[in-house]
Each structure stands twice: as C-alpha cells, then as structure tokens.
C-alpha cells in the first residue's frame, strides 16, 4: 500500500514521461519484468520507510509483479522522526532511507545490518567517486546504497518575488534569506523553512563564514543569533507541505530541498498556474547530501530488502525515479535513460565545479546534535 498523496494529474504526466522514455530508449521492458520468481513465504513482504515525494509511480508495482513480494510503503519528512523510530527499535521496517549525516551515527550505533553484496550485482553501476563520499559515513560501503543526492537551496515563486524585490535582485545569494531587508518584504507572500536543524544550522554557519560542520558550540550560538533576526519573517516551518504551498502560490520563498522545488515547478507548469517556480543554489555554496537505503538490524525480511536494493539499482528503474523526483542518482548506467532536460539541468546534476562550493553534511557528535535540537526549538518558538 502506498501511503503517499500525490496530485493525480502530475502522476499521470510523470507516467507518460516514463513510458515515453522507455519507449524512446528502445527497451521493450520484457527482459526486465518477465522473470517473476516466487518469494519465500517468510520474505513475501517488504516494509519500506522513505521520504515523501521520492519515488516513481510504478516503482513499487513493478517490483511486486516481478518478485511476488508485497510492499508496505510509508513516508516521512524528517531524519529526526526516522531516527527516533530506529533508536526505539522494532520499527517494523526492512528498508529505511536516512541521510548520511544521520545514517553515519545510526550505523556506528549498530542499528543496521551489513549488506550481503553477493545478492547485489547491480552495485557495479554505482559511481565510485560518489561511493567514496558516502564512505565518510559508512567505511567500506558496507551498509548503505544511495537512493538520491541533492542540495538545499532557495525555492522561489519567481513571478511574485521579482514583483516585490524588482527584476535585478540577486536571487542566487543567501542574502535573500538572511537579510531582514529582503525577508521583511517577502513575508507578505509567505516564507517557509525546512524544519530540519542540521540543514538550517549548516547554512547559517556557512553564511557567517564559519565551518558548516563546526563542532564549536559557540558557533551555533552565533548562528542562532543570525537565525533569530529572520525568525519574524518566516511564516511556516515544514519539510514537505511547502512543495504544494509553492504550487498553490501560498508561499513565494522556501528554504528547501532541490527535488521538492523541482517537483513544485513541474506541478505548477502542469496546473497552468500564472506564475513560475524556480530552484536556485546560492553561488557561495549550499549543503549537498545523500539519502541512502539501509536495512535495520532487526528487519524481518532481509532477503526481500536485498532484492529491493538490487532492483532499485536496475538502470531503467533508477532513471524512472530520477525522471519523477528530479534528484540525481549515483547509478552511472541509469544516466542514459534520464530525460535530457533533467540530465542537463545543473540544479539537479550540478557541474563538478559547482560541487566544489558545496558542503557535504557530515555525521556530528551527539552533544552537537543535542545542542542543535535545543537551539532549533529556541529559534522556532522565538525565545
Ligand atoms: C524528499 C526530500 C528528501 C530530502 N522530498 C531530504 N533528505
């Protein structure tokens, strides 16, 4: 069952795009989907916990058809929510998709089962240079397989923002988000911010010229001072609803994830709205992060979980996901099946040069995580 709410029209359009892509690339699909081995009764189920708006429409149904395994698919929008479930144990999930800065700590705490790579031949498609980055949180790449990587930046209702700030405002600058002179003007059309302390603090630290992965508590106090100055102008904190708020014209600025803003842009076009949504990565740099598949140590269906991971790394399967969610994958063989407009979109697939200015979110020690959580509450509540 898919516990995921998506606009019907956008699902339909996505589906058309995927079908067109597969047809164009000359893949009949038969070789992919015809083998349907029966799953063992024990592994005939698979419980997956993934981010919202993070999968293609037919990813699940094709897997179910191919394997006979029935999927229960739930979604979340916060690493803290997932983290709490994993720490409590017995989450019931066989596949979870944390971001590496959280996953690294979860792995170190022994919360994940090591992968049986003999069951994962499709790992051969993964880009070694990206796997080396992930190894920062998972030495030897023993536990994680990347689902998607992307950036945190600014989502604009370009039409509204240009009307308010003028056509020459520099929208590729974090100044827009951190200077009260801009924020106070944009408040009237709505400003949302991810409810994610790691994202908010890393960008605030970066803006202040401090290391985004600082382990100095005083740096976080400085970042809080900066954040408090813009707090009066933020009209909502959320990490998934902002997507449709952008589509609906309820907000004009979002501190958000690239894939959500790109989906919002797509849905806005499909709905023929009279305004334009755009995702911008500020020039000075932005967070880059990897969301990875991992198998909780206490998972009940580990064999099915391996089948899922290997299936996801089928190039056409992963390309269909990229074509729907507008987030890059580490699957090098998938690239030829990705829509050209997405493959060439530097906001989805930034250039190697641009990546130099990004900062990878890294696992932080528990005392810094706790500090971030406490200061984030102080920031949000405004005292
Ligand atoms: C999904 C956004 C996931 C990115 N829409 C955060 N890890």
Structure description:
This protein has 383 residues and is α/β, with parallel strands linked by helices. The chain has two domains: 174 residues, D-Maltodextrin-Binding Protein, domain 2, CATH 3.40.190.10; 157 residues, D-Maltodextrin-Binding Protein, domain 2. The protein is 44% helix and 14% strand. The chain has 18 helices and ten strands. The strands form two sheets. Strands 4, 5, 6, 7, 8, 9 and 10 form a seven-stranded mixed beta sheet that branches. A three-stranded parallel beta sheet has the order 2-1-3. The N terminus is likely disordered. Bound molecules: pentane-1,5-diamine. Pentane-1,5-diamine binds next to helix 13.
Short description:
The protein has 383 residues and is α/β, with parallel strands linked by helices. The chain has 18 helices and ten strands.
